[in-house]
Amino acid sequence: MRQSAPPKTYRVKSFGCQMNVYDGERMAELLADKGIAPAPEGEDADLVVLNTCHIREKAAEKVYSDIGRLVKSGEQAGKKPLIAVAGCVAQAEGEEIMARAPAVSMVVGPQAYHRLPEMLDKAVRGERATDTDMPPIAKFDALPQRRKSPPAAFLTVQEGCDKFCTYCVVPYTRGAEISRPYSDLVTEARKLVEAGAREITLLGQNVSAWSGEDDRGRAIGLAGLIRDLADIDGLARIRYTTSHPADMDDALIAAHGEIDKLMPFLHLPVQSGSDRVLKAMNRSHTAESYLRLLERFRQARPDIALSGDFIVGFPGETEAEFEDTLALVDAVGYAQAFSFKYSPRPGTPAATMDGQIPREVMDERLQRLQAALNRHQLAFNQASVGRACEVLVERKGKHAGQWLGKSPWLQSVWFEGETAIGDLVQAELVEAGPNSLAGKLREPALA
């Protein structure tokens, strides 16, 4: 590979989960520390980082398609970009990517992206580099201080998973569960607030498994961390995602009723309403135990909004078992939810199970499930009409004088009036749609 001029501009394109968004932001900060600027909108970048997700079907093939588009665009512009592939596809397919895509200069896994700057130096010299080592937590010590933040920021507190659900690649691409140290998290949260964050969402593949010692040496869990972060002046809201039912302890349930800054929203994946399917997935809960757990959260915080994840068409799923999932959806009444067709991930036990479901059956079941979820989401939004609540202003709307933000229940709210990004405003929710609500400003923005 020929030597290249050092890149002047970059673009990080992140796919998939919120943790990838966080990782993408941190990689951008690393590149900015090297004096590389983000490429202006609509202009080709000298360096493109594809920060990939391996959860979706054909994730690797989509990466190759993106690489092909970048190469073609560069040829047309007479400008060959440096390309880096990062994230979970990089971790799972590292050497294969290097073999199949000569245009790629760097492949870096999600636990090694702190070494992206030194890999870039090699790429500029014409050397290709792959780094898919998985050192526990080391990357966070090497990342720059947070200097700029959106009003709603992400903070990774935990990575990896030990649950080994039979459909999931996370234990193989992100590694074993590990918690970041308490002091590092408090420091980063303070820096985010100083940089403009009003809301922080704590992230983890299994965030409710976070544990550590506080500044007094006491062992605490996620609830203890949330309590201490709530003491940060200027931080108005706290959220967390994604959790596993097995790790939702009494303290975390109680925190929802006791900590005002902890928003009334819970994302708790269930995946299926069938106990047999849940067992085949290696999920440790049953439909009944899951429903009992949600009821405890509702007792602690009666206005809590509930969200979940669902997989349809898991190997062996019968029509009756799918209908068990529909029954669970109706029993819960989700405010939001994510639903997917099962897709085999190489190396996972479910990929070789008997009873793989035909594509057309999965398609039909997904449509029915999403219709039920959409019905409940609209009902939740309609029940919110007439409520007065705080809305965190996150960005401008499409029209002059229009703003978009989030309610405490993570609903998108648009309204018109005098305000600014980062303000918390009092609004009355006056009209509901399936995906958003209209609000009416009640008073000037709160300080």
UniProtKB/TrEMBL annotation:
CDD domains hit by this protein: Radical_SAM
Name of the protein in its database record: tRNA-2-methylthio-N(6)-dimethylallyladenosine synthase
Residues bound to [4Fe-4S] cluster 2 are: 161, 165, 168
Uppermost EC category = transferase
Q: Give every TRAM domain span.
A: 382-443
Q: Which organism is it from?
A: Pelagerythrobacter aerophilus
Q: Which residues bind [4Fe-4S] cluster 1?
A: 17, 53, 88
Q: Which NCBIfam families match?
A: miaB-methiolase, MiaB/RimO family radical SAM methylthiotransferase
Q: Which gene encodes it?
A: miaB
